[in-house]
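Q: Could you fold this chain for me?
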Amino acid sequence: MPLLAGRLLDGEIRNGLLEPGALLLPELLARGMGVKVGDTVVLVATNVDGSVNGRTFIVQGVLDAVTGPGGRDGYLHMDDARSLLRMDAAEVNQIAVRLKNPAQTERVARQLEQSLEAIVNPRGQPMLTVHTWDRLTPFANIARMIDLLDLFIRVMLVGIVLIAVMNVMIMSVYERVREIGTIAAIGTPPGRILALFVGEGLLLGLVGTLIGVAISVVIVQALNLWPVEFEFGRQEILLAPSLGFVDILWVAGIVVLVAGLASLQPAWKAARMDPITALRHV
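A: Sure. Below is the predicted structure, expressed as structure tokens.
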């Protein structure tokens, strides 16, 4: 592991190799256990037959996080691992399958499960299980959480647009009751009145969308010209967002559509007003 030495925070690795009887611990685990380089720890493991075995090891080094956000995986010598697990010969406990097309992962996983389900132990339990990469890596879970957060933000923004436009249109109807009664009294059909208020709501959504897109483009361009850098843990993050044309059209279409839907109820109320009652309104 020639690159592992570059992740050492304390201790040393000679020629990229870990010495027998020694351990490399991640910083998070070492800090939680209160151990440092040179301290002695005991590893306890359960073997295949269910028996428990333990061995004493010396902490050779402390590592920066190298296995993702968990940061709880350490390293020991292969011979020590076999001794701890009481393995007399080399054994295979995992087989990795790499696909040329990652989009077929789920289909291949189902085929493997069907092919391997007949291999069972004496108790009738499956001896082999199939796991896709997204079930094993913590990054996939983080990506799903970000996707859910993004969906929640989109739904919340749509709700804000719906409430804001509906509130404006309701106030517009109540402030124009006499005007609505006047145009209804001179023969304007209800459909025409409905179209007037729906058009006003759509125009309100369209103008707001154009202003919002213009402000967003200016902010994104400014962040690309003067990117923001900050540290997150031991990582340096560069904030330089991008804004796709398709995303702009998609969001703009949703906002205008929601604005039109929000104006339907006030417009329907205006179209159904009785002209005589509306003209008497103060």
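A (continued): Strands lie at 8-11, 22-26, 40-46, 52-63, 75-76, 228-232, 235-239.
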